[in-house]
Amino acid sequence: MAYIDEIIGRIAEEYPEQKEYQRVVREFLTSIRPVVEKEEERYRADAILERMMFPDREHAFRVTWIDDAGNTRVNHGYRVQFNNALGPYKGGIRFEEDVNADKMKALGFQMVWKNALAGLPAGGAKGGADFSWKGKSDREVMRFSQAYAKELFRYLGADEDILTSDIGAGIREMGYLTGQIRKLTNICDGRVVGKGSAFGGTHLRDEAIGYGIPYYAEAALKMAGESVEGKTVTLSGAGMVAIHAAQKAEELGMKVLTASDSDGWVYDPEGIEPDLLRQVKLEEKARMSEYARRRPGSEYHDGPEGIWEVKCDIALPCAVSHEIGLDQARFLAENGTFAVCPGSNEPATPEAVEYLKAHGVRLYPYQACNAGGVVVTSLEFSQDAMHLRWSEKEVEYQLRYHMYEICRLVEDTVQECGLKNDYIAGADIAAFRRVYDAMCAQGIV
Ligand code: NDP
Asked: What is the mean pLDDT of the chain?
C-alpha cells in the first residue's frame, strides 16, 4: 500500500471520531502525493509523515471560572502544539461553543502549512475553548480568559508558543490573556499577539487579511504578465475581510462591482465606495440594502445568490466557506474570469475547485491569499522582540513584500512541479517542502 494511504488509514483507525482532522490530513496528503511518491521509501524509513501528521503535543484542560451570579462554571480548554520545526508554535485561540479536540487538531494541522507558506519562522498550533462571549458580561469574559490563561501560561513563551486572535478571541480577550500571563510570569513579551496598540499591538491588525488579498492578486497578475490596473472585481461579503479588501483593491486601481451580506448583494457599476461600505456595515451595523439606498445608480438583489453571475476579471470571495459551488464556478468560467483570489477559507466546493481548474480559471490558494493575518501577527511578534513599534507605512510595506514572496513561492512550485494551474497543490507542496527540509536538517527528534 502507498505510504500516504497507510497514514490516511492509520489516522482513520486511531481517531475514528475525529472526522475534521481526518479530512484535512487526507486533503493535504492527496495534494502532496506526487512529491511523496517520488521518494516514498526514504520518507517511510524516516517516518516523516507520522512525524508531521500527528501533533507534537495536545493539551486538554478544565477551565473553571465564576459567573456574575456567583455560580461556578466549567468549560473545556485546548492547545494543540502541532509542529515547531520552523520556529515557535504559533496559532489562534478560538472561543466558540462548538470547539472540540477534533477541530483544534484539524486547525492546528492547517496552521503548520499556512505559517510555513508565509515564509516566516513560525510553527503551527491552535487552541481555544467551548466558550462563547455571546450573552456574557465583560467581567465574565475577563474571568473566563484569566482562567484559560492560568491553565495554559506555563506552556507559552515568545520562543515557545505564541497565541494569536481568532473567532471569539479578539482584541478584548487578547488583552485579558496578556494581562493574566504578565501577572503570572512577570514577563512582557510577544507570547500573545493581536493585542491593543498601547501595549505592543501592531498597526494593521484589523486590515491585514483584507489588504493582503488584492496585494496577492497584484503579484499574481504581474507574474502572469498582466496588471490589476483597471480590472473589474466581484467581491462577496461585507465584513472585516471584505471591507479592507475592497478598499485596497480600489487603491490599486481595480473596480469593485459588488459586495454582499447574508440578506443580499449590491451591484455598483461605478465601483463600490469603500467608505460608505464601512460606514453602513461596520459603524452602523446596517444591511447592504441600506448601502444601495444611499448610493444612486447601484442595484440591490435579495438573497446571496447571483453575485458570481456578474462578469469580472478577478473574483474575491470574502464571505463564507463553500460560497462557490458548481453553478457559480460555471458562471465564473463562462464569463472569462481570469483569477479567483479568496479571502474566505475553503471558498469553493471540491467540485467547483475541479471545474475551475479544468476550465482555466486561476484559483489561487485561500491559505496564500488570506495570509496577511499570519504575516502581520508575525510582524507584531518581531516588533515585540525588538521592543519597537514600526510605523503603519513600514508594516504595510512588509505586508506587501511578504504577499509578493508567498505568490512567488507558489508560482515557482507550480512551474517546477509541472502542476499546470493547480495553485492549491503548489501551495501545499511548497509548505510541505519547507517543513520537511527543516525537519530533515534537525535530525530524527
Ligand atoms: P465577518 O463575519 O466579519 O463577515 C462575513 C460577511 O459575509 C458578512 O458581511 C456576512 O453578512 C457575509 N455573509 C454571510 N453569509 C453570506 C452569504 N451566504 N453570502 C454572502 N455574504 C454572506 O467575517 P470576516 O470578514 O472576518 O471573514 C470573512 C471570511 O474570511 C470568512 O470565511 C473567514 O473564515 C475568512 N477568514 C477570516 C479571518 C479572520 O481572522 N477574520 C482569517 C482568515 C480567513 P452579515 O453581515 O449578514 O453577517
From this structure: 97
pLDDT at 3: 97
Q: For residue 206, how far is its CA from the centre of ligand 1 (angstroms)?
A: 13
Architecture of domain 55-199: 3-Layer(aba) Sandwich (3.40)
All three cell numbers of 329, joined, read: 464556478
Q: What are phi and psi of 325, to 5 degrees?
A: -95, -170
Kindly report whether the global pTM for this prediction surpasses the value 0.90. Answer: yes
User: Do residues 217 and 267 lie in contact, with contact meaning Cβ atoms separated by under 8 Å?
Assistant: no
Taking the CA of residue 210 as reference, the ligand 1 atom at the shortest distance is 25
- Ligand 1: residues with CB < 6 A are 209, 236-242, 260-263, 304, 318-321, 323, 343-345, 370, 373
Q: 208-369 domain in CATH 3.40.50.720?
A: yes
Q: Whose CA is nearest to atom 31 of ligand 1?
A: 344
Distances (CA, A) of 320 to 107, 153, 304, 328, 366: 17, 33, 11, 14, 12
- What pLDDT was estimated at residue 304? 82
Nearest by Cα to 376 from 397, 353, 346, 347: 397
pLDDT tier at 369 (50, 70, 90 boundaries)?
Answer: very high
